[in-house]
Each structure stands twice: as structure tokens, then as C-alpha cells.
Amino acid sequence: xxxxxxxxxxxxxxxxxEGTVGATTARLLGLSKSYGSELSLAARAEHGLxxxxxxxxxxxxxxxxxxxxxxxxxxxxxxxxxxxxxxLSRGESDRAVRxxxxxxxxxxxxxxxxEYALEWLRKAQADLGDRSPLQLLATDSGARAVEEVLxxxxxxxxx
Length: 159
Prior knowledge:
58% of the residues lie in helices and 0% in strands. By secondary structure, the protein is an all-alpha fold. The longest helix has 20 residues, at 90-109.
């Protein structure tokens, strides 16, 4: 898998005219806007996202190989899926949707400034126990903690 971290991920803006987290989540995954609701994303994840969704997510969030393997699935498994042109598993798809949803939320919170959102995702945050949001996205509980912080920022509620 090619490392996309060095690629400038934000040359094109991932946030569509709709500007909703759901629409942006679908765009980050390379899906059509018809997948712009949590329910439609959940249904798609249950059947497995196409492997191309992972490439799209890597591009938009400038994820490194190590970040993908830590947050989505092991190198060997993902390499095998890609070579066999298989979709992501249900679990891998769910983790990809989680990562895209939080990335989309961050982009919406930070006034649609993808560069700042990407920086925020990688920077240790006091509200998150001095861990970066990206580090916490490996679990659902961690993702919820990150979303709580984003919600607070979005609505002017500070810890």
C-alpha cells in the first residue's frame, strides 16, 4: 500500500455543498451522497465497503500506513483483501466509517478547514488525556470521547 501521508490531501475540499457530517463522511469514503445518513452508512458497512473506500479515506485524511493498520486492520489482512479485490470485512468497514465520521465532524467543526482538522486529529488534546484524537479512534469508546470534545467545540461548551 502506498503511503499517502506525503500527498497533500486537501487540494480539493471534501465537504460537499450539503455540508452535513453524513454527506462529508460518505465523500471521505468515496461513496455517493446517497450514503449521507448514519442508517445508510451502517447498512453499507454491514455488507462491506469496497476496498477503494479505504484508499479514499487515506487520501482525504492523509493517513500513514501505520495509522491504517492500527485503526482499520492488520497489514497482512488488508494486503490480501486488496490483492484479491475483496471488500472490507464488516468490522473493517465499521472502523473505516467511524474514522471517516470523526474526520468529517472535525472538518465541519473547524469551519471547513481540512488542514486544521487534520492537524487537530494528530495533536495531543488536554480534554482527551493528552492523547491525540486519532490515537483514540481505535475503539468505539475512544471515538465517542473524541466526538464529545468536537461537540463541545462545535457548541461552545468547554471543559
